[in-house]
Amino acid sequence: MTITDDSLAALDAADPLAAFRDRFRLPSDVVYLVGNSLGALPEAARTRVTEVVDEEWGDGLVGSWNTAGWFDKPRTAGELVAPLIGAAPGQVVVCDTTSLNLYKVLFAALALRPGRGVVVAEAHAFPTDLYMIEGALGTQEGKQLRLIGRDAPDLAGALDSDVAVVVLSHVDYRTSALADLAEATRQAQECGALVVWDLCHSVGALPVELDAAGADFAVGCTYKYLNGGPGSPAFVYVARRHQDTARQPLSGWHGHRAPFAFTVGYEPADGIDRFRTSTPQILSYAPLEASLRLWQDVDLGQVRSKSLALTGLFMDLVESRLGDAGVEVVTPRDERRGSHVALRHEHSYGIVRALADRGVLGDFRAPDTMRFGFAPLYLRHADVGNAVDAMEEAIAARAWERPEYANRPTVT
Ligand SMILES: *Cc1c(COP(=O)(O)O)cnc(C)c1O
Hints:
Blueprint: H1 5-13, E1 24-25, E2 31-32, E3 41-42, H2 43-59, H3 64-67, H4 73-81, E4 92-94, H5 98-111, E5 118-122, H6 127-138, E6 144-148, H7 155-158, E7 163-169, H8 181-190, E8 194-198, H9 210-213, E9 217-220, E10 235-238, H10 282-295, H11 300-322, E11 328-329, E12 340-344, H12 348-357, E13 360-361, E14 363-365, E15 369-373, H13 381-396
Parallel strand pairs: 2-13, 5-6, 5-7, 7-8, 8-9
Antiparallel strand pairs: 1-3, 4-10, 9-10, 11-12, 12-15, 14-15
Bound molecules: pyridoxal-5'-phosphate.
């Protein structure tokens, strides 16, 4: 099939999600392919932030803890995230960050498997996950980390009766490879372990079915595909069956049974509330709340179809037009992938910079990977075509040789 501007426009005209683009604020001269790192700004978020600042804080002052539902934000936001990850009510709170929530659930899971000393994780996991695991294990005697990709070839090879907890990413942050959540959960549980899923790169990119898979714990962020804004609070899922016995280590007053009794001695709240820690960052919930309301109108099946279409189209075009120029597609070509595409080229960093100068934003992950995220709510098939055109032009011009690309900023 030859891809023409007309055929891309026809695909956009037939896109059932097309109207969502108007609900985001996007600069007209930018093709934004970094929604997997920081989602775009929903228009409704701007209004909501102003409302929270002016009315709830400005006029309502401290009374808003009750009248504006501030105290319950982690729970109310959690109930809005729940359907996006296949969770029945009462199992999700939104608070803190992914790193902190991972620490909490890992600790809780370890305590539920006394007598087992091994945590299994992936050598290629997002580093903060591994760093937090190291931190948690450093507080305990005789526990050890076993890495898939270093100490064992795959999950099956890493599992035995010593394994207490397995920490897995649903979508690999670098390659975009998609794990089989139900199957991996089954395998780990069959050997008696508990599983912690990191959903950072899958929530909002595809349907996630935690309850159906019998999952134990999950964490994830809300500032990527969920468009909650820079540093918006993360979520934590704990299956109902673990909630009465799971104890988390960050035992702050908001996870206490009676925070306003101000008693001596920590007693965890019933249910998922015990995974809260401290005062919620109310201003950070404002844009997230607006975005999660927008997600209530979204059909996740349509998101998945469009995600596969956009990423598939991008990979096809890159391979046919840039394969000979040394660009290699790293992301799996079958459907076991998330909503971003990873490419490799010896001059990846310079190409990402040259694309940015042409209005096409992607990102770079050391040592040689370019990542391009395709957020289905606001990207068009035409954007895919424009991105590949720009890349072809940058490579033909050997743009990486430009001296100004030699300096790298802190965030790449
Ligand atoms: C983005 C991301 C994080 C981010 O963690 P923070 O605590 O929000 O900084 C963690 N894990 C994965 C897999 C991610 O993709």
